[in-house]
Predict the structure of Sulfur carrier protein FdhD.
Amino acid sequence: MEHATARAAPLSTPLSLAHPLSRRGTRLVRATVCTGSGVDIREEKIVDELPVGLLYADDLFAVMLATPTDLEDFATGFSLSEGIVGSADELAVTAIDELADGVRIRMQLPVERLAALLRRKRNLMGGSGCGRCGTDSFAETLRPLDPVRSTARIAPDAIGRAMTALPSGQSLNRETGAVHAAGFAGPDGELVAVREDVGRHNALDKLIGALARARIDPSGGFVVVSSRCSFEMVHKTAAAGIPLIAAISAPTSLCVSFAETVGVGVVAFVRDGRLTVYAVPSRVAMPV
């Protein structure tokens, strides 16, 4: 597979992909805690949030505010869910650079993929709560996708089991209380992988990338997320070929209408032994 040749970039020295940056996600800050009994000054652990630049052939495509963990998963999942590549094999992460004010991920694409990207090119600044910020047209925002081909149907008990287990995979959130999670479960509800980020869509991209890099077939399982379910969450789920997404909070109108067009089941308010199916109820194996 021929990858486009990168132009030399006079920027910082690349880090090894095994650099501690890819494992960190928190830092200590001095904080003042006020209670009824007085004031306590101490160190508190908070989650990292940094600009993460995504470069293809040394050309900046997007800057996302994200937690700088699982960065290869993030780059892979973003590239897949944005339709930049069709498989993880088409992407090569060549360097992860730590800059003074953020992180840069450098990638290479096959020549034909890079040419298509340049035709479509957008530069965006994405907030940690934003999944489609900076898109320069309605057509790009609502980019159509093929329907998900999976025939999987997931039992309500399996959905509840996966959502109940999700906090056990949220180590960053236990430390900081500021992080979303996305988990992938098999049809029995057993979690296979969990990824975390300050942005819910970033967490989902990291999860999609992790599945792709591990060559896990996503068509037989489902996603659980510790957030609301908005359009971009369904869009990314469908792009990955995952047949159902379950959220702990509410869906949006565009999420539900788009899910119907691509065949992704949307389940929300999964908590306290209950759930509500909002789109494609055939994806849920209701008890008789």
Notes: The chain has eight helices and 13 strands. The domain at 156-283 is CATH 3.40.140.10 (Cytidine Deaminase; domain 2). The longest strand covers residues 26-35.
